Amino acid sequence: MYMDDDNTKPTNGALQNGDKPASDAEHEDSDDDNEAEEGAAETGEGAAKKKKKRKPRKKKKAGAAGAGGAKAQTAPPRVRIDEVFPNDSYPEGEIQEYVNENAYRTTNEEKRHLDRMNNDFLTEYRKGAEIHRQVRQWAQKWIKPGMGLTEIAEGIEDSVRALTGHQGLGNGDAQIAGMGFPTGLSINHCAAHYTPNAGNKMVINYEDVMKVDFGVHINGRIVDSAFTLTFDPVYDNLVNACKAATNAGIKEAGIDVRMSDIGAAIQEVMESYEVEIKGEMLPVKCIRNLNGHSIGHYTIHGGKTTLLNSITKNFGTLPFCRRYLDRMGHDKYLLGLNNLVSAGIVEAYPPLCDVKGSYTAQSEHTFILRPTCKEVLSRGDDY
Q1: Which stretches of the chain are DSSP H helices?
Q2: Cα dihedral angle (272, 7, 222, 2), rounded to 10 degrees?
Q3: Mean per-residue pLDDT of the chain
Q4: For residues 7 and 295, what is the distance between their CA atoms, to the nearest angstrom?
Q5: Residues that constitute the known binding site for a divalent metal cation
Q6: Backbone phi, then psi, for 275, in 5-degree steps?
Q7: Within a domain: residue 382?
Q8: How many domains does the chain have?
Q9: Is 244 part of any domain?
């Protein structure tokens, strides 16, 4: 796991604002009761004046946001996130205090001043994190056995682009906001970095373990988070081990913390779990060369000329896949793309696989080391 001072995320598992509170609704009911009592008082006087007819109040539609005219999200997600949060007041991530030798940062006045001075960029991170939460929460309900990987990837990516308001088809549009990198859908022994290309016929089955890994960026501020999706409860302990180990790594992380200490915390939790598959009890192990990484500005790990120009204009240093080139109308580009990779101009991210027949899980969050605390940007109600 590598960290920078601005944005860091933990090791892989291989290792939400708008609805009116209930109290307001109750207050409205009490107003109606008062009006009814007033009407009764008028009729009880025996006076000749007629009782005024009161027009019933129009009830607000469920899901309406009250002040500010915010809209409710749809399923699949298609309402731009800045229409759901019109004032750019996106939810703060989960705040965790530093521990051990970093504990002083929580109350240190100088660090608190630094935190207040350097937080403008956090709005972009929180916006991306909210988009990620809304899309993945929908995706977890939507994905079912028998669906094709291409359908799943395009469903997630279309939702992200709709919420950012950038379809990524014009020059430079994908660099303003959109996908941080292609959606990873890695099944069973394949741990990470697998994305379907055009013509892919693979489907997700009931007994499969699928890692769903996608990123959202706003002006190059990338929020990267992943989860493991299973349908058979036999794999629950594998998924739980992954989540618990990731949370242990986040808790241990901090400024100037040794990587070995973070790794030890992750390994201790991960390897305390066992999974029973087909009557055999199997230990859960960390994958040695699959770990956390820093996230920089526009960098996630961080004829040929025409193709390269198109890649540079549309993606810059952001990762892309062949499906994205197809979507932009490119064809007959494979030879040129292979040459760019061979020359070291374009960096390849091949799938990371374990032993065939094994099952791998992944859990991943993006968090930032602020001067006074850790903010887990991608934390949600789901994980």
Answers
A1: 22-44, 81-84, 109-117, 122-142, 149-164, 173-176, 236-252, 259-270, 304-315, 322-327, 334-342
A2: -50
A3: 84
A4: 6
A5: 213, 224, 293, 364
A6: -130, 135
A7: no
A8: 1
A9: yes
Residue with tokens 């058979």: 232
Q: What is the model's pTM?
A: 0.76
**297-304 — which CB contacts under 8 Å span 24+ positions?**
297/220, 297/221, 298/175, 298/217, 298/220, 298/222, 300/180, 300/181, 300/215, 300/222, 300/224, 301/349, 303/336, 304/336, 304/339, 304/340
- Which has the closest alpha carbon to 127: 92, 154, 158? 92
User: Which range marks the domain in which residue 247 is found?
Assistant: 81-298+353-376
Whichever domain contains 119, its CATH number is 3.90.230.10
User: By the 8 A CB rule, do 378 and 93 touch?
Assistant: yes
Q: For 277-288, what is each residue's pLDDT tens digit?
A: 989 999 999 987
Q: How far apart are CA 304 and CA 306, in angstroms?
A: 6
Q: Would 32 be classed as within a structural domain?
A: no
Annotated binding site: 193, 213, 224, 293, 301, 364
Q: Is residue 63 part of a domain?
A: no
pLDDT above 70 as % of the chain:
80
| Residue 232, amino acid | D
Binding-site residue set for substrate: 193, 301
